[in-house]
Design goal:
There is one protein chain. By secondary structure, this protein is an all-alpha fold. Helices cover 45% and strands 2% of the residues. It is built from 7 helices and 2 strands, in the order ααααααββα. It has helices at 15-23, 26-46, 51-79, 96-113, 144-148, 151-177, 237-246; strands at 193-195, 213-215. A two-stranded antiparallel sheet has the order 1-2. α4 runs parallel beside α6.
Amino acid sequence: MRDVTSYVAPSIRDPRKAYQRLFGTEEIRAFRNITDLVMGDARSLQKQLSHHDRSKFAEYFDSIRTIEEQMNKRERLKVDLSQVSLEEPSDAYLPRGDYIRLMGDLMIAALQTGLTNVATLMIGPERWDTPYLYESLFDKPMSHHQMSHHQHQHLNDLMRVDCFHMEQFAYLVKKMDGIKEFEGTSLLDNTIFTYGSGLGDGATHQYTDLPIIVAGSGGGQLQTGRHLHCSKGTPLSNLWLTHSQAMGVPSEHFADSTGPVEALVA
């Protein structure tokens, strides 16, 4: 039995580090050097094998070739970044809205150039319980986490923060809609851009009646421009299953899903 261990992908909070990870060249050169060495060793070893062992080795060799092809593709994408017009972020402190928009710009650039097809932008994970000024909303830094646990004291403040976050989401949606792709479509048309939370109430940690927005149709796979109210007890994983199927993943289940959100499917 094979032992499979799951790992959580580490998040990157620093915009500059995210930029260098996505668009830097040092990492590409390092991967290229390693790939060249492995390919050279593989070719040398193959010459020493018997006919029977060569056929067995072919599967491994093909996997190495796949890595090489991926690196070639990644290098070509690096050259094509001139269309993005995105400069490397500085080390300067950024107001909250500027920070969110910059990280969103990096995400959009990665999607636009094909560096990735899947991205997650965390606005405020629980472990980042740092007070933020939220630009002009408050006269002192405030903790969104703490406000959500004392809603009776901060209801109006929470509404202002929600509007603030929606403004950032609208900015990213508009930017994606302005990036034109094939046959008159936009990046937004060909993407499923979902905004929401895993909790419906921050104070009680209940996870029903979750407010979720799905922008973009994934290339026409989803219906847009509608408001849906799912039946009571519908798990959020049904939405993720719907997303994965729309992206071509032949999956019938995801986590505790009970089926796709049929009303969302085009």
